[in-house]
């Protein structure tokens, strides 16, 4: 039963991440289309936002799991990385390069930290 709760909480975290990332993508695409801004001006913003989105996803996942937040955050990050890898590999026939591998390792760290704080902020099981 605990594994089911962990998977369920990780899926809530993934849903939150996808909503945040798709919202940011929509906003940036509108800004690129209707202003004179270029893609290069958003690079650092998008990287920072990705880490924040992973943190929030891990936080939600840890809060829903109510215990073992680091595992809930890690599961969220691993599922997210797996989805991104499958889209890239099956859709574009490309593997992760070293930069993407390091970014996803950082995403995992961010989601784990979010999961730990999510459990502690929501008030996990103290018994």
From TrEMBL:
The chain crosses the membrane at residues 12-35, 41-62, 69-90, 102-123. The keyword Transmembrane applies. It holds the Pfam family DUF3792. InterPro entries: DUF3792_TM. Keywords: Membrane, Transmembrane, Transmembrane helix. NCBIfam families: TIGR04086_membr (TIGR04086). This is TIGR04086 family membrane protein. It comes from Alteribacter lacisalsi. The lineage of its organism: Bacteria, Bacillati, Bacillota, Bacilli, Bacillales.
């Amino acid at each position: 039963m605990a594994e089911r709760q962990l998977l369920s909480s990780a899926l809530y975290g993934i849903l939150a991440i996808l909503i945040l990332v798709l919202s940011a993508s929509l906003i940036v695409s509108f800004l690129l289309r209707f202003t004179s801004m270029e893609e290069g001006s958003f690079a650092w913003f998008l990287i920072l936002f990705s880490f924040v989105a992973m943190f929030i996803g891990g936080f939600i996942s840890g809060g829903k799991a109510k215990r073992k937040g680091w595992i809930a955050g890690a599961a969220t990050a691993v599922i997210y990385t797996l989805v991104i890898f499958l889209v890239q590999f099956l859709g574009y026939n490309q593997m992760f390069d070293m930069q993407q591998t390091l970014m996803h390792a950082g995403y995992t760290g961010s989601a784990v930290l979010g999961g730990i704080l999510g459990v502690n902020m929501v008030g996990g099981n103290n018994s």
